[in-house]
Amino acid sequence: MSTTEDDLSREALLRSCAAVRALSAALTEGLDPEDQALQSMPDASPTKWHLAHTSWFFEALVLVPHAAGYRAFDERYFELFNSYYESLGPRHPRPMRGLLSRPTLAEVWRYRRHVDEALRQFVQSAGASTWAAAAPVLRLGLQHEQQHQELMLTDLKHAFSLNPLRPAWRPATAPARAPAGPSPVQWRPQAGGLVALGHAGGGFAFDNELPRHPVWLAPYALATRLVSCGEYLDFMRDGGYRRPELWLSDGWAMVQAQGWRAPAYWLFDEPGAPGDPAPSQVFTLHGPQPFDPQAPVCHLSAYEAAACAAWAGARLPTEGELEHALAGTDAPDLRYDPGWMQPCQPGAAPAGEAWQWTRSAYAPYPGFRPLPGPAAEYNGKFMVNQLVLRGGSCATSPGHARPSYRNFFPPAARWQFSGLRLARDAA
Ligand SMILES: [Fe+2]
Questions:
Q1: Is the pTM higher than 0.85?
Q2: How far is the CA of 83 from the centre of ligand 1 (A)?
Q3: Which of 31, 97, 218, 416 has its CA 20 to 30 A from that of 196?
Q4: Residue 338 in 3-state DSSP?
Q5: DSSP string of 282-335?
Q6: Residue range 92-111: average pLDDT?
Q7: For residue 53, how far is its CA from the centre of ligand 1 (angstroms)?
């Protein structure tokens, strides 16, 4: 989906709507209804819920307030598929989404088609002033669905990883990787200074990317690629998970409490001494696959990323440093291959193939203003106790990310495609 000013035209939004909604459907191909009902932890949601919730967003924020005479598919869904919008009424408890055998998957698809048809009619018939008010919210709904497309994949991966049968989302094709493997890490010096951060205008941005504002960056250097699995294995073999001096206090507590000894989804033949020998396999959306030391390491918590960076004599970048470095590139050129939904090319794209943890707290930019109406709850109220991730991942929907994009998760989260790029202060 392109992100230009033209996106607010009726024709462009209809095309985008068809493309985005079709990708959600494509991501479910090959899954059985039982797969799509799984909820493996409170942070993750069933595929079926994602399909319904993204439709609810259009219904609750576009159709109900703007489409005269709109008839809801089922009034009860307003509670069932509201995620966290206090202003839009009660919600079904998040940890209980996996208990919803009803509506069935077939009913959820009827719900989606009902919303699709209502949106189509609304876009074609809305008066000018109504359209002017609704179009930005409709575009927000498309970006919202793209965010959930990545969550559909990461949530399903987590659920499948807990099944001893090790199911696959779909078969793997060979990863497209440069035959020479990753180049040695090089350090690219950045002068820093007074730079502008935040979305520069032209096309869509979430409210959390605004306003563009000046930031002072001390001179720094950024690694030219992401840390690889092989390099992370070196950290583990050097006692990375046994050396408290490398860890943030909260991170060390998590290591003890959770028994972390390796990134999530690494599979070892010999329990007890993770790291030596290397894992034989990694669990992926294509089931277990051979461990690839050249691939970017991912499914790290921010704590693990920070400890590995400390071990390497480096640190996590700030979000300002990463945005400044990425801003010189066009929109992140991320590979999106349903045949290999797993990071494999550490240096292929400036944005990388795994989200990059930063050391920056997810906080409002100076002058931040939430969106009007219910969408005010979209980002601003989550701006505490989380860290920003930058770039994008192999599972980020095409056209969704940009250099000013701010992803965010609690530092202990490991089920996203989260990796790291090293930074350090200029010598
Ligand atoms: Fe949502």
A1: yes
A2: 6
A3: 416
A4: coil
A5: EEEBTEEEE--TTSBP-S--HHHHHHHHHHTT-BPPPHHHHHHHHTTSSS----
A6: 97
A7: 7
